[in-house]
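Re: [help] complex structure
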Amino acid sequence: MRTDVNKISETTPHQELTEGLMMFAAATSKGFKTGEWRTNTPVFLEEKCKQCLLCAPVCPDCSIPVKNGKHEEFDYDHCKGCGICAKVCPFGAIEMKEGR
Amino acid sequence: MAKKDRMSGNEAVAYAIKQINPDVMPVFPITPSTEIPQMVSNYIANGEVDTEFIPVESEHSSMSAAIGAEAAGARTLTATSSAGLALMWEELLLAASNRMPLALALVNRTLSGPININCDHTDSMGARDTGWIQIYAENNQEVYDNFIQAYPIAEHKDVHLPIMICQDGFITSHAVENIELMDDDVVKNFVGEYKPEEFLLNPGKPMSVGPYAISAYAMEARKNQEIALENAADVILNVGKEYEKISGRKYGFFEEYKTKDADYIMLIMGSAAGTAKEAVDELRAQGKKVGVLKLRVFRPFPAKEIAAALSRCKAVAIMDRCESYNGNGGPLGSEVTAALYRNKVMIDAVNYIYGLAGRDFTVENVFDIFAELDDAVTSGTEVEQYQYIGLRK
Ligand code: SF4
Ligand code: SF4
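Output below.
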């Protein structure tokens, strides 16, 4: 029953899908680009950013990567554009723009 | 050596559970099934089984925990009745769609209202389209035997579906009758160890159960689930054959009692089949050609086999211990007539609703029904096609 999930697509006939659609792989949500649902997009204004990192933990989609204590570019594959990060940022370093 | 004993239906199921020694039992008590977890906890307290007993705060939780435990890789069961089953509703569907072969000991009790704790099939019939296998018993012996067959059916690789082993509340669950119990090692051998191919607590083999499915996948998943339920039919028959070898007792989709040359057949499920057989014996002594088809397997529904078994008779009384509120009959009434029509068996089929909320179903009721069928066939009397029996008028 263990199947390579990469071999399953929207054209796979029912006989070849897994039982109960079980997924036999780890961290598969990474490959599910839910950022496509976004209608608003956060824009990172790096020059205003003080690296206080208040934004990163409040993102419901873990779409604000932090490396070496620094806020990096948004993960637009998964950001839903909810705007929470922009609300939280005390320095106006995140602006929301309409569209994707 | 099999041993003779006397037990209630609840005791019989608890005893089967003890012999199987499943891994996990999350459960919440509700009349009339409470004795099952109560007895199993005694077995656990006495060190006779090492089942992990999880006392939960509701049936919504017991079925959720059962799904989780089963997905983790543990052989799991729970027990309930009536409102408890209703509270599990959402999880019942999940257990089936996630293809979890867990077992549920259901002690049939009516659902409110009016509030009542006695037997009818409203609870399990309400869950008839949740994707579970449903097997019914006439008495304590059958519910014991059915429970031992539960896991070999549910866990079969072509099935992987949850299974509901039903018995009639109080009538079967609390009445003490003779029973033949099998030896522990015979039961253990028959049921075998649970070795799921895929399960969550399997280091190095990550998987996820019950993912969100977009429209491009959900319909295919449902078809596959439907195929699994159809597959259960053969598996049920094969497990029944194997079981006969160790018990000497025969189990199929249904039992045909004196139906071979019968002009009139009563199709019935559960404990009331005993009453129907008693009446048939008396009528046979008067030379009347009548019989009983006692349905054991309701899901998957053996439509073709039922139609074939009824094809030689002149009329059938389809007995529902449940109202369907569709204005056209009970669940068995609808499904059996559909089976007859699709298989082109054009006999008279009258649907009777009986025994709701513990109303007695008597031998006299059965006499009246057979007399009515005979009247319809021989004198052409028009019979109400969907009616209540044993109702004060
Ligand atoms: S909250 Fe604003 S200032 Fe702080 S790290 Fe995030 S973007 Fe930078
Ligand atoms: S807009 Fe919402 S989802 Fe996107 S990065 Fe900000 S908090 Fe996360």
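Chain A has two domains: 1-32, 36-100.
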